[in-house]
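Annual report, structural modelling task.

Input specification for the FE2/S2 (inorganic) cluster complex:
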Amino acid sequence: MPAGKIVSKFFTFVEVKGNFYMNDKKELSAELRTALEEWAEENLRAIGLSKDKIHDYENWKEKAIAQLRFIYSDKVIDLFLRTKDFRKMDSPDAFARVRGQCGDTMEIYLKVNNGKIIDSSFQTDGCKPTIASGGMVAEMIKEKSIDKIENLTQQDVLNALGGLPKESEHCALLATDTLKEALNKLAERGKAEK
Ligand code: FES
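The model returned the following structure:
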């Protein structure tokens, strides 16, 4: 397949039709810039494109990065590329797995001490916004007391993420629903002293 066609196939893959979220793009941190470049290279490689196969490779890389940043806020991108909380936890005090309306699942793990979340992590088989939402929830609840987080809403998560495309807003709901379930499990175990 000619390089031009392969590239347009790639952008069809990246593109999300419908409601785009636009935010003020600030200068990227060096870490996020590196992670984005690696993401773009990996995706171009996946469709058979490399530096030696296409003369304006760097341009296509920049285009891919710009398009991703057009769809998602930098906070969303940072979380789905770099969150450290996408991990299973050994011996959590509470764990919950919830299936969302789209069929994807999320798991949340909590470790608690004196009514305070001292560690939290998550796993999911969902999309980029789901990874970002799980990472955002993990970030938002760490070092917080249970009574401060039990009413965390989908909107709180969306606000902290800088928004999600309309069709992905349910991903934030999956994260807060899973958190609620994990807190219920914690309460059942009697470890949620306030
Ligand atoms: S599309 Fe399934 S949770 Fe994001």
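The first strand starts at residue 94 and ends at 99.
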